[in-house]
Amino acid sequence: MTDRSFRSILTGSFSTPCAKNPTVAMMEAGYAKAGLDARYINCDVKPENLAAAIAGAKAMEWAGFNCSIPHKIAVLDHLDSLAESARIIGAVNCVQIRHGKLTGNNTDGKGFLASLRKLTDPKDKTILILGAGGAARAIAVELALAGAKSITVANRSADKADSIVRLLKENTGCEAKTLDWSGNLAVPEGVDVLINATSIGLGDAEAMPSVEIETLAHARIVADVIPNPPMTKLLRSAKEQGCQTLDGLGMLVNQGIIGAELVLGVKLSAEIMEKTLAVIFGVQD
Ligand code: NDP
Questions:
Q1: Which of 130, 132, 164, 266 is least buried, going by the fewest C-beta atoms within 10 A?
Q2: What is the pTM of this model?
Q3: Using alpha carbons only, what angle is made at residue 266 by residues 260 and 267, rounded to the nearest 5 degrees?
Q4: 72 is a catalytic site residue
Q5: 134 in ligand 1 pocket by Cβ < 6 Å?
């Protein structure tokens, strides 16, 4: 006779394609270090199967799950409640399941914020965001809620930048405006934090958003959301211009830590999660 439980806590991710998403390795390393008998299952879920996948997670009493591309908006139709910032952002990447009820959160922007706080407090800071997709939207809302003084959004498609500015003005007290981005962007003077929230640089160490490189020196901190490769060309260039830099690994690790706190109530080790990703991405110490 043994008292041991053979039932693991179940969590995971729904996205498609999912094979290149390393989150499972990072989360299971964190679970193991915390001594949790918990699994993180990386599921390839096509859009037409999202409802069935969610019903399955409920039926199997999963503790929660992450949603990634393309489900971050579609999942809203399946939730019982929504955290405030996720409501403003209009997208959810982390769902808790309690007593069969689903609560949606957005941890992307919160993960970026936690990573940024290691270098600076965003309160009263002047921010320039490149990009206006889901990551930019989540980051902009969290920075505004954290007290940023002003947020400027520059995006190839101006209408999406306009929509983030409208969102910030309607829901937060932060000053918000757009900056035209045709040709090479000249970074204005007085920027505290410049953030690349476009997908430029993902999987390509030589790709870089079109900016006038010497004007990067106008930004005190240059951050990138790109986790792979972590040392993007933008960050290398910013370093050469004397800026402090922040890579996308910290955002990825912190959104995982925040998600685990929401779903399991456990604080995971950032160190083991960072190490796991560094090995996967071939980052040298
Ligand atoms: P979206 O597809 O929603 O947005 C992509 C953004 O990149 C848009 O603003 C798009 O501009 C811009 N963009 C793409 N290609 C170009 C180009 N050639 N020239 C100019 N602009 C371009 O993606 P997400 O916001 O969801 O994700 C963005 C990046 O953030 C991804 O690389 C993702 O891996 C990363 N990410 C990192 C996380 C982390 O934890 N580190 C978490 C979440 C995302 P336009 O609107 O004009 O198309």
A1: 266
A2: 0.94
A3: 85
A4: yes
A5: yes
Closest-lying ligand 1 atom to the alpha carbon of residue 249: 41
110-246 shares the fold of 9-106+250-280: yes
Question: What is the rounded CA–CA span in Å between residue 92 and residue 39?
Answer: 21
Whether domain 9-106+250-280 has CATH 3.40.50.10860? yes
- Please state the CATH superfamily assignment of the domain spanning residues 110-246 in this structure: NAD(P)-binding Rossmann-like Domain (3.40.50.720)
Say if CB 241 and CB 257 are below 8 A apart. no
Sequence spans of domains, the chain: 9-106+250-280, 110-246
pLDDT single digits (tens) 204-223: 999 999 999 999 999 999 99
Place of tokens 């796991």: 276
Ligand 1 atom 4, closest CA: 133
Please list, in sequence order, all residues whose beta carbon lies within 8 angstroms of the beta carbon of residue 221, skipping any fewer than 6 positions away.
116, 119, 120, 192, 193, 194, 243, 244, 245, 246
The complex's ipTM works out to 0.99
